[in-house]
Write a structure and sequence with these properties.
991 residues, alpha/beta, 8-stranded parallel beta sheet, 22 helices, 21% strand, globular
């Protein structure tokens, strides 16, 4: 009997464990989102939206939210745009058969009666935030929302699925026409968003957005904002910071806040505009209010704050609290400790005002405190705000988040938010004109924020909104459910985005174009362009970059003819213009680099590159003019007015300007000149010997010799090698401007060893001797692929590992298309605990090193900020089984906001001094103009490892802290031949 009872209890326990485990798995996968329920052919029991020239009527309760009724009318019109027959929208009428019934639970009598009659089950959405149900019920289509926006999102979900893009106005996306629309029988649930507040900040709006709005609407007013509100709702977003450059949302047009509230948008003010008061509202009253100094002018400033909350108290607001100095600068003239004390008093006073106006606890009225620029120092030093306030963490102004959600805040009632830039006007540098943000980077950064716990509010600085349509679309989709788009699904999202706008036929081609032009812009953003970023003479880097840009621009141009006429305006805005115009700006600087080098060498072809840059400059203006004046019949007049060529400092210049270039005057007679790969020198007028870079049997490299003309007319030349193993692509010819000889080695002729030879270039009696050295050694025997060199630098893409060994709590994963090349390597989960090398996940790379010596290894990582300063940011590397060497991954971090000064470090509870830069690695670019982790979008770490004997080795990279993303490895950087990307990767023994 006892044994039976024991067995029974064991069974009960086992069943409990199974049920509990099953319940947990259900919970993890319980998130619901509507499938593709719209049909274009009738099937059994499907609901008919439109057919044979008739469309279903829409019924809505007149007592429902104004925003719901307005959106229902949009749906009626959308059905008309798609089918040619709009749906009637009826209020206060009894729903008929084959009708669409729309309403909010507890606000719509129609919906509440359906619930009471048990026609619909709303238990999964009732009381939830912004959730909805779409269900076919007895010949009707029901749209029921848990709240105002839940219902609105349900309405617009139907609109999008029948063929009306959220971007139909803002990007002129064509309506997908059809005569037949049905909804598949079923019940479709949308669970609540995983990020509660999701929105955009219209900022830096002059000259483009502001001029456009004044021309189109007479100002940045409620008529204009209505289009933004609708876009946000169609994207299932809910939050807006309005334009604020000399503008006041609440005073410029009194209808602005009313319209926002009627639509259902939560309004806020920017990070430095507290208590629903814009900066302009203060500057307009500065004389009567007095100094913007809370320590000396508390009474007047409190009154100013009071009037702002009182005016907008009946609207749906997110109240920004705190205070910065006048004009979005640091507050006060005192030190950080004095500013902290003042801010504590500011927030105390603001909370008292909120309580007085609303007559209840401030915790019942959403507030946000922006931990922006210097305010982060105050937070690190111990300043905090009440527990119900959202902590709004920020990026570094260029798209790299400065903090993950601190462990100490995990139980905070208010939660954490993120203020992120895909547009920037200010330090470290402007990034305004065009989209320069890749979807893989957005996924990586927002996923890092979300997984760490930043999930209450995401607000994105989008500048003029256009031309940032793609990243806005992604962020709003991702914010609803970040788990739905992991890193390996980013490409699928981009293809789907292209397909939704342009159709499936060319979706992959378009996705490729928009992915590549943004990736290439991240190499060097247009406003941050400057001379000599890419090497003209090493690794043919400048030519390789130009080739890639031309390929993406040509692809966009060729595809244009295949795009239907109705989609041409959208194609120009979303694909063609950004791809071609970005490529043109990049080529202008590449051409200028060649012009300046060739002018120094005396090449007559220098003038060709001068003209090419000028032609591109003129073309850039024509493309922008076409955007402003012609697409969509001039709808976007002035929208593409940002100056974007010729920046000398962070702020926008007065006009576009070409970089420095020179025209040369050719010599009167044809005159030979010779230039070689690997140096900017030219001959015969240089005393130094002309020596080509070393030829390496492992790299099977070839190098060029340019024979060029310094004068008018043409000349004949000959090229002759003194060794049979030196192979030339041509032995002579006639040169009018220039010709290129490729030099290669016939390795089959050579034995092992180092061999010297020379090439003689002649024009009459003028001779230039070019020295050649080739190194041949036994190719290492290996069973697997490896990287290496006999003569110097080599590069390793991080995703070309030989082994990927998981750790105790984490593993390295491929992050496709992230970074400069095909992929980067990151950690999953990004919230994994820090590890020691013995428990850490590691990557292993087989490398060949020909000498026993110290070897320099450089790790190119994405510029992860000091996101957890108390813990640190570390990675480790070793050769073979040697003790791993730790690296402080903050090396090279740019202190944009002056956090790491001796004074601030002394007061901070968490900050540690930044490690010194290594100035003896040339390709990293330390000390060069616009060369650091901000401009390069890559940070370089370096470590010295001991090679105990020549041969094959295993380079091991260990995760220590999980947020680091590894993009590339460069071994033995060659200071004589520096480049931007490093040596071209070459993997050997690939089968």
């Amino acid at each position: 009997m006892i044994r039976c009872n024991l067995n029974f209890y064991r069974l009960i326990v086992m069943l409990f464990l199974v049920i509990n485990a099953f319940g947990q798995s259900i919970k993890k996968s319980d998130y619901k989102s509507p499938s593709e329920y719209v049909l274009h052919q009738q099937e059994e029991k499907a609901f008919t939206i439109a057919s044979t020239g008739k469309s279903a009527s829409i019924f809505v309760d007149s007592k429902d939210w104004k925003g719901v009724i307005r959106a229902a009318k949009d749906l009626g019109n959308d059905i008309g745009k798609v089918t040619g027959t709009a749906s009637m929208v009826l209020e206060n009428a009894r729903p008929q058969n084959n009708s669409i019934v729309i309403g909010t639970i507890g606000k719509s009598v129609i919906i509440d009666k359906l619930i009471a009659a048990k026609k619909i089950d709303v238990s999964e959405i009732k009381g939830q935030w912004e959730s909805f149900l779409i269900q076919t019920v007895e010949g009707q289509l029901i749209v029921a929302g848990s709240d105002k926006r839940g219902t609105i999102y349900g309405i617009y979900d139907i609109s999008e699925k029948i063929g009306v893009s959220p971007w139909y106005f803002w990007a002129d996306v064509p309506i997908q026409k059809t005569e037949q629309l049905y909804v598949k029988q079923g019940r479709y649930i949308q669970s609540s968003p995983k990020v509660k507040y999701r929105g955009i900040f219209i900022n830096d709006e002059e000259p483009s957005f502001g001029q456009w709005a004044r021309a189109a609407y007479g100002g940045i007013n409620s008529k204009m904002y209505a289009n933004i509100f609708e876009l946000l709702l169609r994207l299932k977003a809910n939050y807006l910071w309005p334009a604020m450059w000399g503008k006041s949302f609440n005073e410029d047009d009194p209808r602005n806040p009313v319209t926002a509230d009627e639509y259902g948008i939560v309004m806020g003010t920017s990070h430095h505009e507290p208590m629903i008061r814009s900066q302009k509202e203060y500057t307009d009253r500065k004389t009567e209010i007095g100094e913007w100094n809370y320590a000396t002018n508390k009474k007047n400033i409190d009154q100013f704050f009071y009037e702002g909350i009182e005016r907008n108290k009946n609207f749906d607001n997110m109240i920004t609290i705190g205070m910065r100095g006048e004009g979005d600068v640091a507050m006060g003239e005192g030190n950080d400790l004095e500013n902290i004390k003042t801010l504590q008093n500011v927030i105390k006073g603001q909370r008292e005002i909120i309580q007085k106006i609303y007559k209840d606890s401030p915790e019942n009225h959403p507030q946000v405190w922006a931990i922006f620029t210097e305010v982060q120092r105050y937070y690190d030093a111990g300043l905090t705000v009440p527990d119900d306030v959202i902590l709004l963490f920020c990026d570094n102004n260029w798209g790299n988040i400065r903090r993950t959600y601190p462990e100490k805040e995990k139980n905070r009632k208010g939660g954490g938010g993120l203020y992120y830039h895909i547009d920037m006007n200010g330090g470290p540098w402007n990034d305004r004109w065009i989209n320069t943000t890749t979807i893989p980077k957005l996924q990586q950064q927002f996923n890092l924020a979300y997984q760490s716990g930043i999930d209450k509010l995401w607000i994105v600085n989008v500048g003029d909104l256009k031309p940032k349509e793609l990243p806005i679309d992604f962020i709003m989709h991702f914010a609803w459910n970040p788990d739905a788009i992991p890193a390996d699904q980013v490409w699928n999202y981009t293809v789907d985005w292209a397909g939704r706008i342009f159709g499936k036929e060319h979706a992959e081609e378009i996705a490729d174009i928009v992915s590549k032009y943004t990736k290439y812009n991240l190499w060097r953003k247009p406003e941050a362009q400057t001379a000599n970023i890419f090497s003209v003479v090493n690794y043919q880097e400048s030519d390789r970059v130009l080739k890639l840009w031309k390929e993406v621009a040509d692809k966009a141009e060729k595809l244009q003819s295949k795009i239907p006429a109705e989609a041409q305006d959208a194609y120009y805005q979303l694909v063609l213009y950004p791809a071609k115009a970005s490529a043109a700006v990049a080529e202008i600087y590449l051409a200028a680099d060649k012009n300046m080098l060739y002018a120094k060498q005396g090449r007559v072809s220098a003038n060709d590159f001068y003209k090419r840059a000028q032609d591109l400059f003129e073309q850039d203006k024509k493309w922008s003019d076409y955007y402003n004046d012609s697409i969509a019949k001039g709808k976007w007049k002035y929208m593409m007015s940002d100056v974007h060529i010729g920046y000398k400092m962070w702020s926008m210049p007065k006009a576009n300007a070409l970089p420095e270039m020179k025209e040369i005057k050719p010599l009167p007679e044809p005159t030979i000149g010779v230039a070689i790969e690997g140096t900017e020198l030219s001959w015969p007028d240089t005393a130094e010997k002309a020596i080509l870079p070393l030829f390496d049997v492992l790299a099977k490299s070839s190098y060029y010799i340019d024979v060029f003309n310094r004068g008018t007319g043409s000349f004949e030349f000959t090229a002759k090698a003194n060794k049979p193993w030196i192979r030339l692509s041509q032995s002579g010819g006639v040169v009018q401007k220039e010709t290129r000889i490729q030099v290669a080695i016939d390795w089959n002729i050579l034995l092992e060893g180092t061999f010297n030879g020379k090439i003689e270039i002649s024009q009459g009696k003028k001779r230039v001797e070019v020295q050649v050295t080739a190194v041949k050694a036994a190719v290492p025997k290996a069973d697997e692929p490896y990287f290496g060199s006999l003569t110097g630098e080599f590069s390793i893409p991080s995703n070309k590992y030989n082994a990927n060994i998981p750790g105790k709590n984490a593993k390295w994963i491929v992050l496709p298309d992230l970074g400069r090349s095909d992929a980067s390597m990151g950690i999953s989960p990004v919230t994994a605990p820090s590890a020691s090398p013995d428990t850490a996940p590691r990557l292993e790379y087989k490398i060949f090193l020909p000498k026993a010596e110290k070897v320099k290894v450089c790790l190119g990582i994405l510029p992860t900020q000091d996101i957890n300063p108390e813990r640190g940011l570390r990675i480790a590397a070793s050769l073979n089984d040697q003790t791993p060497k730790f690296m402080d991954a903050r090396k090279g971090l740019v202190d944009t906001f002056g956090e790491y000064t001796p004074s601030n470090l002394a007061h901070s509870k968490v900050l540690k001094p930044l490690p010194a830069l290594n100035d003896d690695i040339t390709f990293i670019g330390n000390g060069k103009q616009r060369r650091n982790e901000v401009f390069d979008n890559l940070r370089w770490l370096d470590v010295e490892l001991e090679v105990e004997e020549p041969g094959m080795h295993t380079l091991k990279i260990f995760m220590i802290d999980p947020e680091i993303v590894l993009e590339k490895i460069v071994v033995n950087p060659d200071n004589k031949h520096p480049s931007y990307f490093g040596a071209v990767p070459m993997q050997h023994n690939v089968k």
